[in-house]
């Protein structure tokens, strides 16, 4: 089996390498120091299994596992963690295996033997089990079999388009399969609903203005396209603009 080791601590990665060498039958094809790097390397190297720490700076192991589920052939994931037993009660240990640090060789061998692929439902259950779980740091986009991670702070808006959602940054545009309802629930503090089909990142809003036909539009920094504000959302958008001195309302 081809193994990718993911941990922000070098000593922990070295320990896993030694244990895998002692067990035999496994090839370490790479290492990663955080969740984002794990997703990129997994997409490139196609490992059979990831040994992945849960708590890492930037993107943690749980978010990385959610992104990995989008691969055509997602790897198995075995979480490694320094959580105590009480904290582990929050996880469905029948659905996903985990190794409690310091990791023992017999425990690792057993976990690898029964390593199995996670389902999206299992990942989501684990994700929701953590009360302090932050929203995703990235949105995963699938391009020709590979995963492209788009940092959430780079996203100017989400725009519903048929069964897809357009993800727009200042320089790129991608399609994802998601719903605005879910995106609004997850990122509502960063985005403003201006239309039933549009969520706009508040940090990108330059101002609101009247269109030639008298409706309101949102002008964005670094993005030429202006987005329509629906009548239903006009009052809320103008109220938001009035409470933000940096945003100008013209006309």
From TrEMBL:
Keyword list, A-Z: DNA-binding, Phosphoprotein, Two-component regulatory system
SMART domains the UniProt entry points to: LytTR, REC
GO molecular function: phosphorelay response regulator activity; transcription cis-regulatory region binding
PROSITE patterns cross-referenced by the UniProt entry: HTH_LYTTR (PS50930), RESPONSE_REGULATORY (PS50110)
Keyword Phosphoprotein among record annotations: yes
Domain of life: Bacteria
Record-annotated HTH LytTR-type domain positions: 139-243
Cellular component per GO, a single term: cytosol
CDD domains: REC_LytTR_AlgR-like
Modified residues (4-aspartylphosphate): 53
Any one Gene Ontology BP term: regulation of DNA-templated transcription
Residues of the Response regulatory domain: 2-116
PANTHER family noted in UniProt: REGULATOR OF RPOS (PTHR48111), TRANSCRIPTIONAL REGULATORY PROTEIN BTSR (PTHR48111:SF3)
Protein name: Chemotaxis protein CheY
Organism: Sulfurifustis variabilis
Lineage: Bacteria, Pseudomonadati, Pseudomonadota, Gammaproteobacteria, Acidiferrobacterales
């Amino acid at each position: 089996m081809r193994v990718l080791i993911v941990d922000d601590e070098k000593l922990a990665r070295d320990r896993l390498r030694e244990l895998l060498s002692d067990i035999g039958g496994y090839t370490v094809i790479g290492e990663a120091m955080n969740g984002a790097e794990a997703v990129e390397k997994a997409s490139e190297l196609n490992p059979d299994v990831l040994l992945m720490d849960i708590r890492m700076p930037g993107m943690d192991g749980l978010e990385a596992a959610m992104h990995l589920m989008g691969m055509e052939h997602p790897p198995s994931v075995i979480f490694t963690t320094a959580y105590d037993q009480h904290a582990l009660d929050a996880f469905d240990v029948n659905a996903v295996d985990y190794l409690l640090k310091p990791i023992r060789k017999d425990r690792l061998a057993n976990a690898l033997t029964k390593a199995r692929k996670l389902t999206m439902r299992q990942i989501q259950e684990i994700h929701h089990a953590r009360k302090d779980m932050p929203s995703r740091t990235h949105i995963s986009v699938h391009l020709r079999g590979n995963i492209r991670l788009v940092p959430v702070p780079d996203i100017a808006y989400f725009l519903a388009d048929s069964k897809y959602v357009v993800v727009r940054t200042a320089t790129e545009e991608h399609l994802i399969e998601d719903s605005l309802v879910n995106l609004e629930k997850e990122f509502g503090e960063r985005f403003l609903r201006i239309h039933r089909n549009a969520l706009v990142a508040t940090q990108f809003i330059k101002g609101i203005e009247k269109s030639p036909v008298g409706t309101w539009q949102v002008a964005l920094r670094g993005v030429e396209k202006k987005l329509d504000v629906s009548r239903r959302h006009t009052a809320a958008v103008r109220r938001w603009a009035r409470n933000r001195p940096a945003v100008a309302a013209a006309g």
